[in-house]
TrEMBL record:
Subunit note: Homodimer.
Record carries keyword Cell membrane: no
N6-(pyridoxal phosphate)lysine carried by residues: K211
GO BP annotations listed: L-histidine biosynthetic process
Upper lineage: Bacteria, Pseudomonadati, Pseudomonadota, Gammaproteobacteria, Thiotrichales
InterPro entries given in the database record: Aminotrans_II_pyridoxalP_BS (IPR001917), Aminotransferase_I/II_large (IPR004839), HisP_aminotrans (IPR005861), PyrdxlP-dep_Trfase (IPR015424), PyrdxlP-dep_Trfase_major (IPR015421), PyrdxlP-dep_Trfase_small (IPR015422)
CDD domains per record: AAT_like
Cofactor requirement: pyridoxal 5'-phosphate
Name of protein: Histidinol-phosphate aminotransferase
Domain Aminotransferase class I/classII large span(s) in chain numbering: 34-346
Catalytic activity: L-histidinol phosphate + 2-oxoglutarate = 3-(imidazol-4-yl)-2-oxopropyl phosphate + L-glutamate
Keywords associated with the record: Amino-acid biosynthesis, Aminotransferase, Histidine biosynthesis, Pyridoxal phosphate, Transferase
Length: 361
């Protein structure tokens, strides 16, 4: 029963009752202090639905869950923050996540004033997760309310098996929520943990349209979990998190023809990932390139080439602070042309052409 894990001071809390959340029927709307004139002819003078029904329907179909098992959020970032706020009491509870992993789990923990524990993934073993060891660490701490499992993990690119996730859900049923962040799952071709939410009520899955679906600018994330928890999260979400224009654009982007395009670009990204991986593995500039199931590669170069790439107009993500090693870079997979240019620049760096004359590719 996950209910006992939510913040006790929120158990009796009533959400803000917005005009649209009352679901009243009528044709003269004098209840929300909006301008009565629709100057846009698109209904932009009215507040949007708190959960835009058409979008919820499209996402539930996409992720193969029921409509009451999904909450649409302003990107997964908002989903992460809502979970931390709902489950973690200030200066009392804690969160566990991988080291390294996506930085927003720690930011949300800090903002909520809760402790953040890190479970170090084994760099020498390509970051493979030892579930028993993670469970041992979690069980040493009393108040870990949320365990974030980023799969595929950012920035390491490795996937955590569904068997492992099930073990965590079962073993921690009375203690912690297991939050599986699947921002990059589409690039792995593997099954989503959303297929398990009916079996484990302490399981939450985060999905996003920001990555494979090419809609980062729209800010559309989904929290997928059991219907009881969805209605509890609605207590802490902002009254109208999804703008009408965002809902319209996202629904349009989820139509069949565009989804076919998304699929073909996703396959292209995976092909480019393989091509770049193979190039890097053979490159004498590289110490180690880590296998990835996401749309990026984590690479340890022999020297720090971040600035040389910048000089050539190629911006990658430095992982210097995360690994305490300035030769570690995370490289997102670009278009075929962008990967070609990157390879050309790397060739030039290798032959010493870049740096000497600032040649760009
Ligand atoms: N989760 C992971 C693992 C991410 O890497 C990111 C963004 N880089 C997010 C969530 C945030 O996604 P969104 O754009 O949906 O807020």
């Amino acid at each position: 029963m996950f209910e006992k894990l939510i913040r006790q001071d929120l158990a009796e809390f009533n959400a803000y009752s917005s005009a649209r959340s009352l679901n009243l029927k009528g044709n003269i709307w004098l209840n929300a202090n909006e301008l009565a004139y629709d100057l846009s002819n698109e209904g932009f003078n009215r507040y949007p639905e708190p959960q835009p029904q058409e979008l919820v329907h499209a996402l539930a179909t996409l992720y193969q869950v029921s409509q009451d098992e999904i909450l649409v959020t302003r990107g997964s970032d908002e989903g992460i923050d809502l979970l931390v706020r709902l489950f973690c009491t200030y200066q009392q509870d804690a969160i566990m996540a991988f080291k390294p992993t996506f930085g927003m789990y720690q930011v949300s923990a800090r903002l909520q004033g809760v402790e953040y524990f890190e479970y170090a993934l084994d760099l020498t073993n390509e970051f493979t997760l030892d579930i028993d060891d993670l469970l041992k660490e979690i069980n040493k701490k009393p108040n870990i309310k949320l365990v974030f499992i980023c799969s595929p993990n950012n920035p390491t690119g490795n996937l955590i098996s569904l068997e492992g996730i099930e073990r965590l859900c079962l073993t921690l049923a009375d203690k912690s929520m297991i939050v599986v962040d699947e921002a990059y799952i589409e690039f792995s071709g593997e099954q989503s943990a959303a297929s398990l939410i009916k079996q484990y009520d302490n399981l939450v899955v985060l999905r996003t349209l920001s990555k494979a679906y090419g809609l980062a600018a729209e800010r559309v994330g989904s929290v997928i979990t059991n219907a009881r928890l969805v209605s509890l999260i609605k207590k802490v979400i902002a009254p109208y998190p999804i703008a009408l224009s965002v809902a319209q654009n996202a629904v349009a982007a989820l139509q069949t023809a565009r989804l076919a395009l998304v699929k073909s670009k996703m396959f292209e990204a995976v092909r480019e990932r393989t091509r770049l991986f193979q190039y890097l593995q053979a490159s004498s500039l590289v110490n180690k390139v880590y296998p990835s199931q996401a749309n990026f590669l984590l690479v340890q170069f022999k020297v720090d080439i971040f600035n040389q790439l910048c000089q050539s107009g190629i911006i990658v993500r430095s992982m210097a602070k995360v690994f305490n090693d300035e030769t570690m870079l995370r490289i997102s997979i670009g278009t075929v042309e962008e990967v070609n240019k990157l390879i050309k620049v790397l060739e030039n760096i290798n032959t010493g052409t870049i740096g000497a004359n600032n040649e760009t590719a």
